[in-house]
Give the backbone structure.
Amino acid sequence: MKKFIFLLVLLWTVDCGLLTGIARASNVTVTNVSLTNVNVAASTVDIKFDLAQDNTFSGTDANGASFYDRIWVFVKFWKDGWATDGTVGWAHATLTSGGTNTPTSDGKGAFCQTGTLQTVRWNYV
């Protein structure tokens, strides 16, 4: 049984949760992707990866609020009939808490900072 993981990233500029201006970061790369900490009982696996980009930024505004850039990461995987519903094709992975990056409330992605050893936890049921 083969399972393919496809880690996708989308650059987003975040300022207290609001899009501000044009994102100037470029050359986003994802490297060293691996699956670790498989927990069969909980149906989870950690996806570890290194995330890099050029032109990162952060700072503090006039009111003392921090702003920073993050990269929107989401995971797609290939279902080859192994799921209980027997479907085949690309599916959106549901992320859960437990990695170094907290997923959104719907579990469909996480805002990650650049750096080595980023982790998202996939609930693969």
Notes: The first strand starts at residue 4 and ends at 14. Residues 9-20 have pLDDT under 50 and may be disordered. Residues 36 and 42 are 14 Å apart (CA to CA). The beta strands are 4-14, 26-39, 44-54, 58-60, 66-80, 88-92, 94-96, 110-112, 115-123.
